[in-house]
Write a structure and sequence with these properties.
The chain is an alpha/beta fold. The chain contains 6 helices and 7 strands, in the order βαβαβαβαβαβαβ. The chain has a single domain, classed as 3-Layer(aba) Sandwich (Rossmann fold), CATH 3.40.50. Bound molecules: NADP nicotinamide-adenine-dinucleotide phosphate.
Length: 242
């Protein structure tokens, strides 16, 4: 799949109303793909679709909580009904809830694992029949460097992203001969409002959402023979520890 071929492609990006997912949807749209916007908040989905269309891109959207298999199945039905099919799934939706293990509530644990890990399983599982109908495609998961480096207060988030690495790699082995490429991107700190932080001054060293989107586009631009199955993307010059 090369970039110039994306004009015939349909791409679903979960969590694409802001941040990294939004940037990925914009880069896919610029490369000619029809993008399917999705997140939990219906109003944000409608606004994002409308903005992309105003800019001349092909976009459609439907709200979906990736934690619910039922909602994910409805999203796939929406795509099957409203688009020519599905070629690319970017599993980007994610949440970060942090805190000492003793203070992390079971509800917070569940929210992180169900969104960042089960949500990816739900979307991939429900998307595979659509991808196969089109002769194959790509599934790209947005993981994190927190998927290989644990940190204090990261029990739920680290577990979700370490788990996502295993899920991605096993899925890659399951799907390669069905002509579906599976890859994952592990960014370091990105300037978004993830986990309630407001991007602002002093963010210059962080990655931008577009940096992550560019990594996704690199994977999609590769020749059919080749698969970059994992990209570690780190800020080049984070503040030095004294
Ligand atoms: N920012 C970073 O430093 C960083 C670094 C490495 C990796 N990542 C990963 O990159 C991904 C995107 O992060 P971001 O920084 O762009 O976050 P963000 O700005 O908070 O955006 C998250 C997006 O996901 C959606 N979302 C959250 N829960 C959802 C659910 N249950 N179902 C469907 N959509 C849901 C949100 O919309 P709604 O709230 O309306 O649902 C929003 O569109 C995450 O997987 C995160 O772990 C982020």
């Amino acid at each position: 799949m090369t970039e110039e071929h994306l004009s015939e492609k349909v791409a679903l990006v979960t969590g694409s109303t802001r941040g990294i997912g939004r940037a990925i949807a914009e880069e896919l749209a610029k490369a000619g793909a029809t993008v399917v916007i999705s997140a939990r908040r219906e109003k944000d989905v409608a606004e994002t679709v409308s903005q992309l269309r105003t800019e001349g891109f092909r976009a459609l959207g439907s709200a979906c909580d990736v934690r619910s298999y039922e909602e994910v199945a409805s999203l796939m039905k929406f795509i099957a009904d409203e688009a020519p099919g599905l070629d690319i799934l970017v599993n980007n939706a994610g949440v970060g809830l942090f805190g000492h293990i003793s203070e992390l509530t079971p509800e917070s644990w569940n929210q992180v694992i169900e969104t960042n890990l089960t949500g990816v399983f739900n979307c991939a599982h429900a998307a595979i029949p659509l991808l196969k109908e089109r002769g194959g495609g790509a599934i790209i998961n947005i993981s994190s460097l927190a998927g290989k480096n644990a940190f204090r207060g990261g029990t739920a988030y680290n577990a979700s992203k370490f788990g996502l690495e295993g899920l991605s790699e096993a899925m890659m082995l399951d799907l390669r001969y069905e002509n579906i490429k599976v890859a994952y991107v592990m960014p370091g700190s990105v300037a978004t409002d993830f986990a309630g932080r407001a991007p602002g001054d002093g963010d210059d060293w962080r990655l931008s959402s577009k940096d992550v989107a560019d990594a996704v586009m690199v994977i999609l631009a590769q020749d059919h023979r080749a698969l970059t199955s994992r990209i570690e993307l780190r800020p080049f010059q984070p503040p030095q520890k004294k």
